[in-house]
């Protein structure tokens, strides 16, 4: 038992940990959280547009959109980040990161929307037709509100997933949380403290969010 | 027959409907006069519901023509070609037609009142006040004045179906299509829905095309009953004649099975 405690003291220094925390929190709030929030907004809006286009646009539009989305979905996000980073060297890496996260996750969210829309019973469309409701009104007032009930929780799950993907922004030099932990670590050789804290910060943010998503799911399931 | 105008409300001309290789309606011709109540009976799969769905544009005609108030609907002749009408022209006529479904199909994300005023406001262009006033009248008519702000999922099947009837009537339809409106209901809830429909049949001159298995109800409200078998009308007579003295062996067998 004392052996283990000695070992702990060897790898863990509370002073280093205390010194690292403020910098890590700053990187978390300024970059990781910002990228997650903006990336999610882009993904949620773009995903809805894509789902709508693939369902309702003529084939010569829907098909190419489908191929582009498949391409984005089936290639690693790191490759996409590096590609845009080196192709557009004058762009701010943070904004590249936000844009790529948004686009990449839009492809997943489009699938969520698609299944949400498909799950709206056929009878709802038929009732709208029987009332001669215009197509647009049918979408905005009947189909989308009903589809959102099942999609919102699923979208929340993808947001958490995106949040955990933000460390990939490291590869394009964005100073997010893991990047900051690496910097702190290299300055003082306190890597264990820095990465442990980084992990705990991720956990502290994603765990309550996942509980929130589950609560939301239960609430939305009822009318 | 209550018709005063000789133009039929609905006329089917050589209507064919196929689903893949399955011919559901085969060269069907019939008409329904203005204000007339016609009930379609027959074994399931005989194409009765398909007829209502064609009138409501929920299915696409395979061949032939449908006329509403004498005007071609969804397809028209242009020279010797058969062409689909523009959506705008279809919509202009389809607002005259209302439908009540077996499964009610109320919008669960809206209250009862919102369900009823949605189309009058956004299709007919009624003001909110006008639409709400009419909705409250209709809710009183179907006996649900106290449920205006309820959500449909909180209502019983019979109540939901009465809301669906009010919703269809809010559009002031000239033609009302009733598609097995009591088939999804618990037996003890059938009566309240039929009661509401009897009232509408008595107090309005709406043309009704009805598919039902409630033979008693069919006998009470119909001017005419059409017996269907395999996509064709095999017997067409006033209810009293058809129910008491069917001419076709097939009709007799069917009535024996359901009565």
Task: Outline the structure in words.
The complex is a heterodimer of chains A (223) and B (259). With 223 residues, chain A is mostly helical. Chain A has one domain: Orthogonal Bundle (MetI-like fold), CATH 1.10.3720.10. With 259 residues, chain B is an alpha/beta fold. Chain B has a domain of 67 residues. Chain B has 9 helices and 12 strands. In chain B, helix 3 packs across helix 4 and helix 4 packs across helix 5. The mean pLDDT of chain B is 93. The chains are: A mainly alpha (223), B alpha/beta (259). At the A-B interface, helix 6 and helix 7 of A face strand 8 and helix 3 of B.
Quick overview:
The complex is a heterodimer of chains A (223) and B (259). Chain A is mainly alpha-helical.
Biggest sheet descriptor of chain B: 6 strands, mixed
CATH superfamily caption of chain A: MetI-like
| Count of DSSP-assigned helices of chain B | 9
Quaternary organization:
heterodimer
Distance between the termini of chain B: 26 Å
By secondary-structure content and strand pairing, the structural class of chain A works out as mainly alpha
Roughly what fraction of the amino acids of chain A lie in strands?
under 5%
Largest interface: A-B, 18 and 27 residues
Strand content of chain B: 25-35%
Q: Are there runs of chain A of 5+ residues with pLDDT below 50, and where?
A: none
Strand order of the largest sheet of chain B: 8-9-10-3-11-12
Task: Record the SSE blueprint.
The complex is a heterodimer of chains A (223) and B (259).
Chain A: H1 2-11, H2 14-56, H3 59-73, H4 77-87, H5 93-118, H6 122-130, H7 135-165, H8 177-188, H9 191-220
Helix pairs in contact in A: 2-3, 2-5, 2-7, 2-8, 2-9, 3-5, 4-5, 5-7, 7-9, 8-9
Chain B: E1 10-19, E2 22-32, E3 37-41, H1 48-55, E4 63-68, E5 71-73, E6 75-78, E7 81-84, H2 87-94, E8 97-100, H3 112-122, H4 128-141, H5 157-169, E9 175-179, H6 187-203, E10 207-211, H7 215-221, E11 224-229, E12 232-237, H8 239-244, H9 249-258
Parallel strand pairs in B: 3-10, 3-11, 8-9, 9-10
Antiparallel strand pairs in B: 1-2, 1-4, 4-5, 6-7, 11-12
